[in-house]
């Protein structure tokens, strides 16, 4: 049995494209309805169609599935892309909290839910560091 993070094991554990799309839809729904997330939600455009597609495509490749993001949008450096916004620990924590709630809504194995949230903390912290560095 493959371990998460190897080949497409994480992509498969997430339910493939459709499972990831559901996660992303839940994530943005939570963000839209959470008063605590209003400042972070304000960093996004009113219409979330592009954001939903980009995050779904990114997560597909990041989890070992097809590299849809680069096929549709080209290469991305997550920290560099997000450096244009003032993202500190508070914004990181709100984003992760919304994602944690979205992950909990999925019918995935508990061990995969834990794994995924731990993995998402890594790029989230890199975004905070890039935001700090862009202010220097």
Write the layout of secondary structure elements.
Elements: H1 9-13, H2 16-33, H3 38-41, H4 49-62, H5 68-73, H6 78-82, H7 89-105, H8 110-134
Cofactor: heme
Family: Belongs to the truncated hemoglobin family. Group II subfamily.
Keywords: Heme, Iron, Metal-binding, Transport
**CATH arch. level architecture:** Orthogonal Bundle
CATH homology-level superfamily: Globins
Tell me the structural class: mainly alpha
Q: Work out the number of β strands.
A: 0
DSSP summary: helix tally: 8
Q: What is the helix/strand order? A: HHHHHHHH
Highest CATH level, the class? Mainly Alpha
CATH fold title: Globin-like
Give the end-to-end Cα distance, rounded to a whole number of Å: 46 Å
**Contiguous runs where pLDDT drops below 50 for at least 5 residues:** none
- Report the sheet with the most strands, covering strand number, pairing sense and barrel closure: none
What would you call the shape?
Answer: globular
Average of per-residue pLDDT values: 92
Overall structural domain count: 1
Radius of gyration: 15 Å
Q: How much of the residues is beta strand, in percent?
A: under 5%
Report the helical percentage. 55-70%
């Amino acid at each position: 049995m493959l371990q998460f993070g190897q080949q497409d094991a994480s992509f498969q554990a997430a339910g493939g494209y459709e499972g990831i799309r559901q996660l992303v839809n839940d994530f943005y729904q939570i963000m839209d309805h959470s008063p605590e997330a209003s400042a972070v939600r304000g960093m996004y455009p009113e219409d979330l169609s592009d954001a939903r597609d980009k995050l779904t495509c990114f997560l597909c490749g990041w989890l070992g599935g097809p590299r849809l993001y680069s096929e549709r949008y080209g290469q991305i450096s997550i920290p560099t892309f997000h450096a244009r916004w003032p993202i500190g620990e508070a914004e990181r924590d709100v984003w992760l909290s919304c994602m944690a709630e979205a992950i909990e809504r999925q019918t995935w194995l508990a061990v995969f839910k834990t794994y995924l949230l731990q993995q998402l903390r890594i790029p989230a912290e890199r975004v905070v560091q890039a935001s700090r560095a862009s202010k220097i």
